Amino acid sequence: MTENDNSAVQPESALQILGEKVKVENEKIQLLKSEIGKVIVGQEHMVDRLLIALLCNGHLLLEGVPGLAKTLAIKTLSDALEVSYNRIQFTPDLLPADITGTQLYDQKSGGFTVRKGPVFANFILADEINRAPAKVQSALLEAMQERQITIGDESFQLDEPFLVLATMNPIDQEGTYPLPEAQVDRFMMKVVLGYPTKEEEKQILRINVRPEGMPSIGKVLSKTDILRFRELVKEVYLDEKIEQYIIDIVFATRTPDKFGLGFLEPLISFGCSPRASINLALTAKAHAFLNNRAFVIPEDVRAVAPEVIRHRMGLSYEAEAENMTATDILSKIIGRIQVP
Fold first, then answer.
1. Is 333 among the domain residues?
2. Based on the structure, what is the number of domains in the chain?
3. With 0-12 CB in 10 A as exposed, 13-18 as middle and 19+ as buried, what is 323?
4. Confidence (pTM)
């Protein structure tokens, strides 16, 4: 067993040293959250999930009714970081080349030159991604998975960090297209947003109507900081018992009868892919990091499980008829799986 094997038993002194590193770096994360909080009131859950996606090098899908600050939160996060940012407004008439770029004929040289599209940035806001047809949505697949774009016969590597942060409006049905399963699985997490509280909405109102306008956001973290945080998150200790807990949760979505959950079988059309296990482990590490811990506990896994699993589990017509959501089914699974 190598010394980098995270499933190995970590010496107590090594965990203490790692814990000190986590606390030091977390102070900078808190500074970032404070900067975002100048503009985004409430929605702490959404902000934490944005940070988890950033720390895990994973893409994020935000679903919620209009006006819940989805676009604003992503824009504010990019403003607080020294990164490039592009917003792509998805519409039914959008073409794949409008995202990735295209080749243009140069009359002077008699050859083709490449004009790169808006996907060549560190942060991509794919606004209302479900308004574009499947061909356009799939244009993002290579970028999201391979971190590269092919234009003609030439491939271009995308700069790190590279994140696709997509928003989706669940209300409108006309002029929208369901995301292909292959693309949905590329998103590390799907976050469903709710309305703010009365007190939060009062603060939102005050920020937006004050004479001096919206507060300005300063750059608090660099690309180097982000990449360093990512390496530290990878070092967060994941015990073998927690690994087994993650595997049990994912396998219960595939074969619920083996976990005493046979009544769920008619409700699940297909279970989660191995990406669910991988992303559940990574996001649990990031959740522990954000909570000043150098090791993962079961609460970390349970906290991120809904966002990691809800879009990877297929529901049957029977589940829809009974108004059962993926989150409802997951809560029954987590309630049954033995906690280490």
1. no
2. 1
3. exposed
4. 0.86
